[in-house]
Amino acid sequence: MSERRKWHERLKVTLWTLIVPPAVWAGHFLFAYLWAAISCAKDGAFAKFPVLFALGTVLALAVIALSGWIAWKQQRTVGDPPPHDEGTEVDRLRFLAKSTLLLAGLSFVSVLFTALPVVFIGDCR
Amino acid sequence: MSLHDQDDIALREAQEVRLRKVWEPPKGLFLRWTDTNNNQVGVWYVLTAFGFMLFAGVLALIIRMQLAVPDNDLVEAGTFNQLFTLHGSVMMFLFAVPMFEAVSIILLPQLLGARDLPFPRLSAFGYWSFLIGGVFVSGSIFFDAAPDGGWFMYPPLTTRTDLSGLGADIWMLGLSFIEVSSVAAAVELIVGVLKCRPPGMRLNLMPLYAWYILVVAVMILFAFPPLIAGDVLFEMERLLDWPFFDASRGGDPLLWQHLFWIFGHPEVYIVFLPSIALFAMLVPTFARRHLLGYPWIVLAAVGTAFLSFGLWVHHMFATGLPKISLAFFSAASEAVAIPTAVQIFVFIVTLWAGRVVWSTPLLYAAGSLAIFVIGGLTGVMVAVAPFDWQAHDTYFVVAHLHYVLIGGTLMPLFAGLYYYWPLVTGKKLSDRLGRTAFWLIFVGANMCFFPMHLSGLEGMPRRVFTYPEELGLGGLNLASTIGSFVIAAGVAVIVLDLYRSPWRQKAPRNPWAAGTLEWLAHPDDENWGIRSIPLIESRYPIWDQEDFVRKVDEGRYFLPDAEEGRRETIVTSVLDARPVSVIRLGGPSWLPMLTAVALGGVFILTTYHFYWAALASGMLTLALVLTWLWTGTAEIPEKPRKPIGHGLELPLYISGDAAPGWWAMFITMMADATAFSGLVFGYYFFWTRHEDFPPMAMADGPGVWWPMVALAVGLASWLATVGAREVHACGKIALARVLVLVGIAASLAGIYAGLAGPWLSGMDPQMHSYPAIVWTLAIWTTAHCGVAAIMLAYVLARSLAGKMTPAHDADIRNVTVYMHFLALTVAVTYLTIGLFPELA
């Protein structure tokens, strides 16, 4: 009897899941830009709602970390070591998972990059 | 048919005769131009783009001659403005982007082991649009009417008709027309990569070139449409005096900069990634090993694609935006260095780990990486806002961008030229001439552009037609000019090499001993693309799969025959490339060329304000498009299924999201929705820029009532279509037809209700940016309602003509995709113009 697989193993990895981490980065980036642009233009100071910005950043990092964690689990699906270049279902899965994991790393760093100016600049000038 | 049938040589020869006949190009002086085979169209495309590059190169030489010495008077200031504007525009729009599409149109079918890409007529249409638009824009300089506002065309100097001539219209309309062909190519390439891979080529076995092209084509969908939106606003201001960019009437020139650079920055990566993709093909060949770090390249391509959209404001660091905004874009600009570096390291590591064969293509690759890295490093410098304020609008930036583009686009393309020439012509280019050309270009590029860093830092501004001797920049400029002629000499050597090619001996098949599918091509080229569509089990099948080439050649894989005398290829599933169906491809036809001519008429006649003639040309375009669709798409096959070999039988008709046509519609609509979001961005941008937007005096606006009515009827037409699709699939044809009629009526009502708001409240679009942008959104949306009515009428006609049945319902399924996006457009427009003024 086969063991029932955990939910993160049952998720179907596709091209859409591959772009989740960078899409979250894009969403966070747009959010950061609009948040600063609108609060600076309409209130003259963005520092009024830094809590909103912090929440958005934490949320983005959490989603990226989650997708990275799922990808980490899925790329450890049993099989040969890399380069995952066999024409099999499991190698395709592990390839997509590995790519997603790498993209999650890049996106995580990039979200941190975007958050830094708010910490260091702190106003609209 | 079984595998062993192919042992019969007579059978194989009979198959080859049939295939040859089906794929035979039309003959005759004129008819040959009606061909749509990507092999042919791709070659025309490449040659045309190469021709435009030489033209733009000559413009650059004149620019450099003018700047060779201080106080020069070789050309006048006005001519100089035309020269640099056209040099930049042609290199970007008529060389770099089309060249990538052209190369891909040749390579992709080969790389994917497909007979052809799914929409060959669309490629041909793209080519003819490109040619017409390109000649129109480039030719203007011979009539002293070329655009002269820089390739970025910043308003207000370019939007005020008293300060700029016809050139600005030629730029806007001519290049908008070419953008149409770019989006068309993007559709072709995305669907090609996703749906036309050979059986077994799962995502993890896809050639890296295909990965890059997929990523780049998707980037085009999100990068080009904002510029199209910008062009719409720009021409509305020039032709109709609607003040989007006129600060005295509530407009803002910065809106143009935003829309332009949302296109303009990703554009740099759109031309860079495909060139790097060529490396991804040739580096493993000459390293004699598999590329290391395959997923890392995917990371690099996808990561760069995303991050490159977060860079547009770094072209606007000096415009006075809040520092915090600049800092976000500065951060993203630094972050993009990570994936860019990753792919370069992957190439270096692969070469390091392999047994390198130092060929001419690899020499170009190595040289271009050296140049590109210097451009990348200065890119990191200008991404730091305070440094950029110093370097902005100086020759430092000119040096940076030319290093990036020569290292990242031009030289990789030359590497690809030397690598792939045998694939296209069956003949190798000369190694001796190639290496001579390389060293001339490499030395010339450094000699031309390195001194510009110094002249820029010493204060040489961009775009000035001359400079005084006292600045002390004469020596550096002279060095740059000499360097530019050395580059030109190198390019001339390449042209000479190409010119001599027809008289050379044929090269052996697969002369570089490469491992990827495109090298199945035979020196004595057959037009059928590939003899039989293989089963793929590895990333480098020629190296890894036993007897691979022989089996392909003997037709031992799929679809080795063309029994029905039709051009065909196999469609597979997106993730795992499982065979889904056989599709019939469009053969030679006048329609693509005629449609391009008619559509070109719309843009060109509008440039000269011949509005009635332009309208007639538009009607002609519509008629041609409908003829094209009616005669060439969603054809009901003579039998439901056909065998493709090895006991596999595939359907000849599919609809819905398994079908290439559905994907083409979906992708086109993504581009459409992106353009629309550019216009919506305009509305909200004005709101952030102005204290009172909508202005109090105009707050009555379009009101709430009419926008809500338009929203209701728009959604009704969507629901009617979705309903029609569902009941049609259940076989209730009559009810489906009634629902389609309801959809048509609701769409037409949507036109009236959408325009009634701004019309009945007397909004004057020339007065202020607010009525202008409201009118624009309303017109955009109602025009889409009009298109919906035409599409639904087409569906009805197809049904009545018996060309659409419940089992063959691609037409209504594709139109439903359009209607989903229409519903989205209607909702965003009418909620924005109807309800937002109530909230703001």
Automatic annotation (TrEMBL), chain A:
Keywords: Membrane, Plasmid, Transmembrane, Transmembrane helix
Recorded superkingdom: Bacteria
Transmembrane segments annotated in the record for this chain: 12-38, 50-72, 101-122
Official protein name in the record: Transmembrane prediction
Organism of derivation: Novosphingobium resinovorum
Automatic annotation (TrEMBL), chain B:
Subcellular location as annotated: Cell membrane
Top EC class of this enzyme: translocase
BP term (GO), one: electron transport coupled proton transport
Iron recorded as keyword: yes
Alphabetically ordered keywords of this record: Cell membrane, Copper, Electron transport, Heme, Iron, Membrane, Metal-binding, Plasmid, Respiratory chain, Translocase, Transmembrane, Transmembrane helix, Transport
Catalytic reactions on record: 4 Fe(II)-[cytochrome c] + O2 + 8 H(+)(in) = 4 Fe(III)-[cytochrome c] + 2 H2O + 4 H(+)(out)
Enzyme Commission no: 7.1.1.9
Span of domain Cytochrome oxidase subunit I profile: 17-537
A GO cellular-component term linked to this record: plasma membrane
InterPro entries: Cyt_c_oxase-like_su1_dom, Cyt_c_oxase-like_su1_sf, Cyt_C_Oxase_1, Cyt_c_Oxase_su1_BS, Cyt_c_oxidase_su1_bac, Cyt_c_oxidase_su3-like_sf, Cyt_c_oxidase_su3_a-hlx
One GO MF term: cytochrome-c oxidase activity
Keyword Iron included in the entry's annotation: yes
Biochemical pathway: Energy metabolism; oxidative phosphorylation
Membrane topology: Multi-pass membrane protein
Transmembrane annotation, as ranges: 42-63, 83-112, 124-143, 170-194, 206-228, 268-287, 294-314, 326-350, 362-387, 399-421, 433-454, 474-499, 585-604, 610-631, 662-684, 704-722, 734-760, 772-796, 817-836
Major location category of this protein: membrane
Family: Belongs to the heme-copper respiratory oxidase family.
NCBIfam families named in the record: CtaD_CoxA
Name of the protein: cytochrome-c oxidase
